[in-house]
Design goal:
3% strand; two-stranded antiparallel sheet; globular
Length: 148
């Protein structure tokens, strides 16, 4: 095979591979992931009349918040969470709304926002945490709601 023929065959393979990769990427960009809404966690235990009371062991909410990297972007005064990219969450539980006013400030709304913030606030820089077990998301939400 001549050098020109070898070059031509090599170029053809490169062109086909490049086209295939570009088509795959275009298909991924057009694919839209639709996930069902997060169902609220139900508990057989009666709810406390104290809204800041937690059924979780002391410190577990903060521990999950920190171990999942939330403190890299958010600040909670008096803790190791000292991020400056996202909002200060020191008293987030006392706010009337979350997500720049798009959701009411309830444990369920906080959990939904933590799991998929992009569904409520397009363009948000916060990543989705829906890969976490629902129980962990609920625990983090309970902890954040208790920050008064």
């Amino acid at each position: 095979m001549s050098a020109n023929a070898g070059l031509l065959v090599g170029f053809a393979f490169w062109f086909l591979a490049s086209s295939w990769v570009a088509a795959e990427e275009a298909g991924r960009r057009q694919a839209k992931v639709v996930e069902p809404p997060i169902e609220p966690a139900t508990s057989a235990a009666p709810q406390s009349s104290n809204p800041t009371a937690s059924q979780d062991p002391p410190g577990i909410g903060l521990s999950l918040f920190l171990s999942n990297g939330c403190g890299a972007c958010h600040t909670i005064r008096g803790t190791e969470a000292r991020g400056t990219i996202g909002p200060d969450l020191s008293y987030v539980g006392s706010r009337s709304a979350i997500g720049a006013g798009v959701l009411p400030n309830t444990e369920e709304a906080i959990a939904r926002f933590v799991a998929r913030p992009d569904l409520f606030k397009p363009g948000v820089k916060m990543p989705a945490f829906n890969m976490l077990p629902q129980t962990e998301i609920q625990t983090i939400a309970r902890y954040l709601k208790a920050l008064q």
